[in-house]
Here is the input.
Amino acid sequence: MLTVLHAFLTADRRRAARPEEIRAVAELRNAGDTPTEIDPVLISSPSLALEITDDDGRPLLLPPPPLPSEQDSRVILGPGESYRATYRSFLPAWTNRGTYSVRIRYRGTADPVTSDWLTIAVGEDQ
Amino acid sequence: MPVLEIKLSVSSDRKRAPEELVFDASIVNSGDEPVRFNRLQAEHPSLVLEIEGPSGTRILLPPPSPPTEAEMGFGEPLLPGESLVLRYQGFVDPFLGPGRFRVRYVGRVPALGGTPEDPLISDWVDFELPLPLPFPKRKPWPTLWWELLWWLRRWLEIFPWWRCRRTWEAEVDEACTQTISNAPPEAAAWNGTYGWRTRFRLRVTQRPCEAEVTVRVRVTGAITSAQLAAWETAIEASWNNLFKLCTASLCCQNGTPIRCDIQFVSTGEHQVVVAGSSTTNMGNWGATDTADVDHEFGHMLGALDEYFTVNGTNWGPGRQPAGAIMNNPANPPEARHYELIRVRAQNLTGLASTTTAAADPC
Here is the structure.
């Protein structure tokens, strides 16, 4: 029995004039051979799922997360199955121009599952 | 270990006219690591100086100018042993005197050398203010005319029809942060520090008595005009006319009701909101949601979350039956959720105020 959750982050562009123009897709994939449970809320909210740092490694703070729901929204991911969340605008509008590193940090498991860092630039046309 | 030390001193005669008083703040990094410090931000007296009057009352300074891009952020590194001097002049209201006052530097955010829990504070520095204008050196005839004019003006001021017609207006732009901790294991992902900018236009009028808060929001994503209208109706019903600002002024003696207006615009926005399938934070709202968006609007007014532990205050779980809107969006706000509006209105009008339920007397 092997349950392995992998996280991936992709963006439709790496550079944009305005922060809200960058769209990203987060994916959680069950690469193991047994079903596993995930909480979509933890991956759907950029505030809960994303880690963003600036050029100097300082965290870029995101707006407050959603209120925790009373309903249990967890879903089962079968072997090979994925769950995707699209962030139409994950960088706050007040983000300064510059280069940022962003990654998924899914905290629904005992050890957080992280994606590779993705580098994006704000304030520059693509 | 980064350690900043500060010494505030008066560089001019302590009994000079207010506009001639000069204070120097000397900041030294006495630690062994570089510390980031935003000098441009710290040069704003309104952001870092606290003044107390002769009876120990806090003297409010006028609001600072909107920050430039360079003024935002954590600033440049101050190396170990390095120091800088900031000069403050012309920030004391020329009509404050006479009396003995005191001033100190307080940096409550990292960019200004401290944190809310561990601010960078200087010792108090005393200074004296002379009798303010319009009381020039006494000369027989001009003095009489001055006094006559002064009393005539005072007399006219007590008539509401002459006086209670003022309007104040300002754009508010303030950085907010909150740290959530002590979330239960199943919600551990909520633990962390969050930051956003509270931006709105504040207009306080005496005729009619009203404090109007306008938040201009540019919405992107798929949403219908009916859904936008539902957001507006829900938000304004949740936040409008529940509380008022009470002052000791002769004008608006029944209080100044606080009215919030969310406007959807295509340019010139205070905030950007993406319409999606569900509400996931202050900038991502569910197109069909009319409950949690009311809570998210509270963040736009400067209100913090009230579930788990926020900035050291333990609120308990979210969505409690008796929880206010920042805990449970099904319920209305409390007076504390309008605190930023109250403080900014107070700074704008110069009238000390309290927030009172609309139905209660001032």
Q: What stands out?
A: The mean pLDDT of chain A is 91. The longest strand of chain A covers residues 98-106.
